[in-house]
Task: structure prediction
Amino acid sequence: MLQTRARFARPRSVLDVGTGTGLLAIAAVKLWRCRALATDIDPLAVAATRRNAHLNAVAPWIASAVGAGLAHPRLNGQRFDLITANILAWPLIAMAGDVAAHLEPGGHV
Result:
C-alpha cells in the first residue's frame, strides 16, 4: 500500500497508530524521508519501535509515544497527510471520527 501511495503522493507527516514494531512508520520514512509519529497502547511495542528505528537508521525521523488510539496529548491539534493503522477492524471503526479529525484535507488513511 505504501509503495502504491508513493507513486501518487509524498506525505510530509505520517501517523502510525498501533505501531507494534514500528514497521509502517519505518517504511514511510524510508520511502519519503518524512516525519512520523508512532503510537501504541503497549509500552513494550513503543520500545521495540524505538529500537527498530535506530537499527534502520531512521530514529531522528520517528517520534514515538504510548497512548490508546489517538488519545495521546502529542496529537492535540496535529494533522497528518497519511495515517496508517494495522489494527483490528472494530477498534479502527470506533476510532474513525478521531482519525478523520487528525487527517489533513486530501490526506489518506
The longest helix spans residues 43-55. Helices lie at 2-6, 23-32, 43-55, 89-94, 96-101.
